[in-house]
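Input C-alpha cells:
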C-alpha cells in the first residue's frame, strides 16, 4: 500500500455524498474532511487506517474519520462493498453530540452489522438513487445512532500539526496551478516556512514540492486523456497545470517515478 496520502478536495464539497455499490476500492492512500465508510459485502480486503492495517472479511465495516489517512488492498479476486462518503453537513449532529470521540475504524460484529448493511442497501435504493438532502440527512443520523449502540467510541487523534497541515493542503489544492512556494503558502496561513515544512512532511509523508508536483501531474494526466477533444498541445497543458516549462514537467515526472510516488 502507498504510504503517501493524497488530499481529495472533491470529497469536501458542500453537502457532498458519495454512495455507491463498488467492486474496486482505492489503493492510493488518501484523506479528506468528509468521513468514509466501507461496508464489505463480498470478498476480503486489507484496510489501512493511519498506521494500522487489518484484514477484513464480508460483513465487516470500516470507518475513517475526518482527515484520517486510509486506503485498501484487495485480498480476493473479487470484492464488493458499499462505499459511503459524507461531508460534514451530514455528520454535524454526531460530532456535536460526541465531541472528541468517534467510531472505531474496524467494526467486526458481523451479526450486528447485517442489520446495518441491510439499512444501507435500502438507503442506496431510496427514491431510485435520486435522494433528497433531507432523506440523506435522516439516514446518516440513523446510521451513526445504530453504530453507537454497539461500538464503543474512541478518542479522536488531533493536534496543532494536523490542523496546520490541513490548512496547507487546502491552500495547495486551491492554488496548485499558480506560482506558489512553501514560503508563500506559509506566509498566507500565518506560520513559518520551517514549521510548515516539518509538520507537512511528518503527516503527509512527502515534502511540499513533491506534493505540489504530484497534484500538477494528476491534472496534466487529465488534460492529456482529454487531448483529442480539447486539442491542447503539450506546452499548453504544461502551463495550464502550473509548470513553467516542459523541462520542469518532465523533471517532475521523472522524479515522481524514481521516488515511486503514485499520481
Amino acid at each position: 500500500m502507498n504510504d503517501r496520502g493524497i488530499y481529495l478536495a472533491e470529497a469536501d464539497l458542500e453537502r457532498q455524498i458519495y454512495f455507491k455499490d463498488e467492486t474496486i476500492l482505492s489503493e492510493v492512500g488518501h484523506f479528506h474532511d468528509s468521513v468514509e465508510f466501507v461496508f464489505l459485502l463480498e470478498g476480503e480486503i486489507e484496510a489501512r487506517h493511519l498506521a494500522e492495517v487489518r484484514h477484513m472479511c464480508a460483513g465487516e465495516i470500516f470507518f475513517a474519520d475526518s482527515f484520517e489517512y486510509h486506503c485498501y488492498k484487495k485480498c480476493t479476486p473479487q470484492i464488493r462493498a458499499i462505499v459511503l462518503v459524507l461531508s460534514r453537513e451530514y455528520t454535524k449532529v454526531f460530532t456535536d453530540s460526541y465531541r472528541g470521540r468517534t467510531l472505531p475504524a474496524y467494526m467486526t460484529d458481523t451479526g450486528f452489522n447485517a442489520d446495518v448493511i441491510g439499512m444501507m442497501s435500502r438507503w442506496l435504493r431510496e427514491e431510485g438513487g435520486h435522494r433528497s438532502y433531507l432523506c440523506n440527512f435522516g439516514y446518516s443520523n440513523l446510521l451513526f445512532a445504530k453504530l453507537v449502540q454497539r461500538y464503543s467510541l474512541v478518542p479522536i487523534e488531533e493536534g496543532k500539526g494536523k490542523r496546520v497541515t490541513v490548512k496547507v493542503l487546502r491552500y495547495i489544492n486551491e492554488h496548485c496551478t499558480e506560482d506558489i512556494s512553501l514560503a508563500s503558502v506559509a506566509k498566507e496561513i500565518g506560520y513559518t516556512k520551517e514549521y510548515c515544512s516539518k509538520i507537512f512532511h511528518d503527516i503527509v509523508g512527502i515534502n511540499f514540492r513533491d506534493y505540489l508536483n504530484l497534484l500538477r501531474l494528476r491534472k496534466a494526466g487529465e488534460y492529456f486523456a482529454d487531448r483529442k477533444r480539447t486539442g491542447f498541445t503539450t506546452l499548453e497543458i504544461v502551463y495550464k497545470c502550473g509548470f513553467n516549462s516542459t523541462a520542469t514537467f518532465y523533471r517532475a515526472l521523472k522524479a515522481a517515478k524514481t521516488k515511486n510516488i503514485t499520481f
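The chain is about 45% helix and 20% strand. The longest helix spans residues 133-150.
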